[in-house]
Amino acid sequence: GQSLEQPSEVTAVEGAIVQINCTYQTSGFYGLSWYQQHDGGAPTFLSYNALDGLEETGRFSSFLSRSDSYGYLLLQELQMKDSASYFCAVQTGANNLFFGTGTRLTVIP
Amino acid sequence: DGGITQSPKYLFRKEGQNVTLSCEQNLNHDAMYWYRQDPGQGLRLIYYSQIVNDFQKGDIAEGYSVSREKKESFPLTVTSAQKNPTAFYLCASSSDSTEAFFGQGTRLTVV
């Protein structure tokens, strides 16, 4: 089976940096991706890591350590619009995608 | 414009009825997925399909059925066997699972 663990809630101040962690146990592993979902909306893709290391896309960065079965999403210069749920997802096969339970990020002034 | 479309946006079902949720994509993606999301919860996989005429059960397939007769379409039927169907249903497609594209969802309520 598959399991992905993320913190359920995180609160951070506008302008600060926040890190959302994800640990996984899966029967196969191709890569780890991150999605953002605002209330009532559809998840949208943020990043994908197949290899160890840090991937940077603007204010967002994502990290993967395959040996530790661990990854994180780093959000810098937080803005109020970043308040949303963030999901990690593991690609376990060529076309198999399993999601974590999500982390609700609240950005406060 | 390419994208993935779900319909209807809101759906009401009487107890004991089957209902079908539509999902259509024109992205030429091979893989399609159905997820269920309950309030404040994550996405749980119901069914997925990697190619036409083939699909596999996800973690919570009981009470649901799907078909994949065309590459563009992956409808989900919520049957009367699904005892707690009220939820937000999301359809997604992907070319290789490194990036999935989601529809805007269907909110199903049992009345």
Structural class by SSE content of chain B: mainly beta
**Count of discrete alpha- or pi-helical segments spanning 4 or more residues of chain B:** 0
What's the rounded overall pLDDT mean of chain A?
93
> What ranges of chain B have pLDDT less than 50 throughout 5 or more consecutive residues?
none
Mind summarizing the main beta sheet of chain B?
7 strands, mixed
Protein chains sharing the most extensive interface:
A-B, 25 and 25 residues
Number of strands of chain B: 11
Order of helices and strands of chain A: EEEEEEEEEEE
Average per-residue pLDDT of chain B, rounded, comes to 92
Q: What is the tally of beta strands of chain A?
A: 11
Strand portion of chain B, in percent?
over 45%
Helix/strand order of chain B, N-terminal first: EEEEEEEEEEE
Report the uncertain regions of chain A: none
* Alpha plus pi helix count of chain A: 0
Biggest sheet descriptor of chain A: 6 strands, mixed
- Rounded Rg of chain A: 13 Å
Furnish the topology, listing elements before pairings.
The complex is a heterodimer of chains A (109) and B (111).
Chain A: E1 3-5, E2 9-13, E3 18-25, E4 31-37, E5 44-49, E6 53-57, E7 60-65, E8 70-75, E9 84-93, E10 96-99, E11 103-108
Parallel strand pairs in A: 2-11
Antiparallel strand pairs in A: 1-3, 3-8, 4-5, 4-9, 6-7, 7-8, 9-10, 9-11
Chain B: E1 4-7, E2 10-13, E3 19-25, E4 31-37, E5 43-51, E6 54-57, E7 64-66, E8 76-78, E9 87-94, E10 100-102, E11 106-110
Parallel strand pairs in B: 2-11
Antiparallel strand pairs in B: 1-3, 3-8, 4-5, 4-9, 5-6, 7-8, 9-10, 9-11
What does this structure look like?
The complex is a heterodimer of chains A (109) and B (111). With 109 residues, chain A is mainly β. Chain A has strands spanning 3-5, 9-13, 18-25, 31-37, 44-49, 53-57, 60-65, 70-75, 84-93, 96-99, 103-108. In chain A, strands 2, 4, 5, 9, 10 and 11 form a six-stranded mixed beta sheet that branches. In chain A, strands 1-3-8-7-6 form a five-stranded antiparallel beta sheet, with no helix packed on it. In chain A, strand 4 (31-37) and strand 5 form a beta hairpin. Chain A is globular and about 40 Å long. The mean pLDDT of chain A is 93. With 111 residues, chain B is an all-beta fold. In chain B, 0% of the residues lie in helices and 51% in strands. Chain B has no helices and eleven strands. In chain B, strands 2, 4, 5, 6, 9, 10 and 11 form a seven-stranded mixed beta sheet that branches. Chain B has a four-stranded antiparallel beta sheet with strand order 1-3-8-7, with no helix packed on it. In chain B, a hairpin with a 2-residue loop joins strand 5 and strand 6. Chain B is globular. The N and C termini of chain B lie far apart (36 Å). Chain A binds chain B through residues 30-31, 33, 35, 41-45, 48, 50, 87, 89, 91, 93-102, 104, and chain B through 30-31, 33, 35, 40-45, 48, 50, 90, 92, 94, 96-105.
